[in-house]
Amino acid sequence: MIIAIDGPAASGKGTIGRRLAERYGLNHLDTGLTYRAVGAAMLNGGISLDDEAMATRIAYHMDLEDLDFDPRNYAGAEIAEAASRVAVYSEVRRALVAAQRRFAKKPPGAVLDGRDIGTVVCPDADVKIFLTADPVARARRRAAELEASGRSPGFEAVLADIRRRDERDSNRALSPLRRAKDAHLLDTTDLDIEAAFRAAVDIVERARAAGL
After folding, report:
1. For strand 184-187 and strand 2-6, is the pairing parallel, antiparallel, or unpaired?
2. I want to staple 28 with a disulfide (CB 3.0 to 4.6 A). Which of 21, 69, 70, 201 is the partner?
């Protein structure tokens, strides 16, 4: 079984993706972390984010099996911005999409979350969920997460960053953030994480009952 979860920043897709993978015994990949890994490598190497050729080289040489995709390793607004910058490069996306598809095919199946899973990476996924939430609600969640981890840029700064990323992700020419036609819409604006997870499980269970 392959479950595709898409949605904008701080909609809850990473947490829900991990929990669905645990519940159903599937592999999990937060595909956004693959772009963050490229962005982090650029920043750590002192490489300009405008250097498309170097970003592409890093992406093609990335082995997902060798990376520790603990979100804490790629946290912070600077890395998030770097990821959003390198994600617009067509060859970077081509390299990472190919790696993500290989990951999805590994037994016993996988949950992948990102922004183009149901439309580009796994268009034939057994279950597709599009998570969304009001930008203000998402900014509150992200600001609370950052404050809990000792980083507090302030709510207004977080909200501005989320709106900027939404604009870039939705309007980029290559693989923009879009809801797949056959994706189930799950609005988490008024849901806590437990309620959102239960709603996601219900979607998966309905698909399984229908024979996927």
Report:
1. unpaired
2. 21
Tell how far CA 150 is from the center of its chain. 23
Query: What is the C-alpha separation between 194 and 202, in angstroms, rounded?
Result: 12
Convert the chain into a string of H (helix), E (strand) and C (coil).
Answer: CEEEEECCCCCCHHHHHHHHHHHHCCEEEEHHHHHHHHHHHHHHCCCCCCCHHHHHHHHHCCCHHHCCCCHHHHCCHHHHHHHHHHCCCHHHHHHHHHHHHHHHCCCCCEEEEECCHHHHHCCCCCEEEEEECCHHHHHHHHHHHHHHCCCCCCHHHHHHHHHHHHHHHHHCCCCCCCCCCCCEEEECCCCCHHHHHHHHHHHHHHHHHCCC
Residue 196 has pLDDT above 70, yes or no: yes
211 phi-psi bin (left φ>0, alpha ψ -120 to 50, beta other):
left
**What is the distance between the alpha carbons of residues 11 and 23, in angstroms, rounded to a whole number?**
20
Spell 140-154 as b/e; 16+ CB within 10 A means b.
Answer: bbbbeebeeeeeeee
Find out whether 6 and 180 touch, Cβ atoms under 8 Å.
Answer: yes
Residue 111 pairs with which residues in a beta bridge?
Answer: 3, 28
Residue range 131-139: mean pLDDT, rounded? 95
Looking at the structure of the chain, the number of domains it has is 1
**pTM above threshold 0.85:** yes
CATH number, domain of 201, equals 3.40.50.300
Range of the domain at 89: 2-209
